[in-house]
Amino acid sequence: MTDPAGSPAERAAALADTARAGDRRSLARLLTAVENHTPVAEEALRRLYPLAGGAHLVGITGPPGAGKSTLVAAVIAQLRAAGRTVAVVAVDPSSPITGGALLGDRVRMQGYAQDDGVFIRSMASRGHAGGLAATSTSAAAVLDAAGFDIVLLETVGTGQSEVEVAAAADTTVVLEAPEMGDEVQAIKAGLLEVADIVVVNKGDRPGAQRTAAQLRAMLAPAGQAQADRPPAKRPEVLITTAVSGDGVPELVAALDRHRAVGASEATPAARRARAAAQVRAVLVERLWHRLASPALAGETAAALDAVARHDIDPYAAADVLLAALGREETP
Amino acid sequence: MTDRPLKVLIAKPGLDGHDRGAKVLARGLRDEGFEVVYTGLRQTPDMIVTAALQEDVDVVGMSILSGAHMTLVPRVLDQLRERGMRDVLVTVGGIIPDDDVEELRAAGVAGVFGPGTTIREVADFIRAHATPREA
Question: What is the pTM of this model?
Fold first, then answer.
């Protein structure tokens, strides 16, 4: 289609309607708008957000090289064999120096060029630290509203604390590779705590069974908080070999089980936590935008320079800027 | 935002397995501040255009060392047009004879880059010619 003309609201409406009718170019355009925070994106999200919620949002996270993209490709194949449609948001890091990014996750997800039931979109993290881009959840909502059965959110290769994906997804899969760390790694707080399903990938490597057994032992309830989790919320530990597809049907079955349970048992607190993560991303964006407005840009720059000179600390600077925002609100 | 990075697809169409140049360029353009989608070896025109569409890229850059450029590039251009993506800047890199360069330009390729081209030249060309898409 040609690009629609008119006001942002009119263009958003046209793009949203054609994207929902199956036009992939409109969908891609909307995702670009979302990534760039354009007025069209805001209007489109206003229309599409109430229509989202039908898709199963699955987060896939884990350290670099664990096999996230290869596993996503194997999951796509399994879902397509069952006739289910799938969209992927694959996030790779942006350079903190140049702002550039090398988005290479598609390399492992080939073979669906003529299949309208698969839509893959790469996103650069654009300075957002947390494993996703600031706009990844909005992008997932657009793909959800476009009618995909399952939306896979693949994070950047994560360390130990990028737990944001758990707030964005219905089901969070944490990927580990065999022999990636000793038992102490597994009892540290962080990533494993937010896992709904733990996958030991590269199951054909020596040590996969042992790693899975260690993870199962570590994830078994020890403290009261773990024991209080309903049984279905204790993560399953599965072994996959993404390159051969071994264990992937079992993973998809586990995703479906988790969704069925999650839909009936998701607590108000869990729902609120997800909403909070989404609102926080917008809130931060808006606050920065206001601080950069002509009225406050001078004060903002002065505060940042003072921190750069070590004259004041970042906490004091934040207080100064919050006070400035408050003054602006109540003239 | 007007200062958002341009998004570039770097693709290796056809059957030659020489992807060193494509990878060097992909990394170099990353360092120039572009968001680069790299799709790997042995891409069909269909795969390239589908990736360009889903990723909503501003630029499609193809690296071809097999000599099949006069077959592959026009197919990509045709499909881009068929799918409403006329505004995407198309560039080709590789060993392209002069006569073919003229023909490719006439067919709609904006830039053809031969051996010895620097990353900076490609980056400057893209910045000068690509139209960032705004939805």
Answer: 0.86
